[in-house]
Design brief:
- This protein is an alpha+beta fold.
- The chain is 38% helix and 12% strand.
- It has five helices and three strands.
- It has a three-stranded antiparallel β-sheet with strand order 1-3-2.
- A hairpin with a 2-residue loop joins β2 and β3.
- The longest helix has 13 residues.
- The radius of gyration is 14 Å and the shape is globular.
Length: 115
């Protein structure tokens, strides 16, 4: 499996994170264009850092799709992940992302933004 390190010990490789300063506006907008990813961002925004496991989100997709969505969000500099034992936990990179794209997350997180 690509997420496992050589040797088959069952350990996943650490996730790769993109510095928000290196993210283009097109990449950021593309990451935020999907309703599932918006839901993930909204739930993370309402949770303390590092308290949400990947499987704890109320989204209508399976485990593989959630993994893909988090990969896209990491690639856009929106999310940071780390492993705590067998669980992968997340935090929204609000400060870093806001510094790169001021006001963009505010628009996404507005209650009426999906209307």
């Amino acid at each position: 499996m690509p997420d496992q390190m050589a040797g088959g010990g069952g350990h996943r490789a650490a996730p790769v994170h993109t510095d928000p300063e290196k993210v283009s506006l097109v990449t950021a907008l593309s990451a935020l264009a999907d309703p599932v990813r918006i839901q993930l961002i909204r739930e993370l925004a309402g949770s303390p850092d590092w308290t949400r496991r990947c499987g704890s989100f109320d989204v209508p997709v399976g485990k593989a799709a959630i993994s893909h969505h988090f990969t896209v969000l990491r690639g856009a500099g929106l999310v940071e992940q780390r492993d705590e034992g067998p669980k992968r936990v997340n935090r929204l990179r609000r400060g870093e992302f806001d510094a790169r794209f001021p006001g963009l997350l505010d628009l996404v997180l507005r209650p009426d933004s999906l209307d």
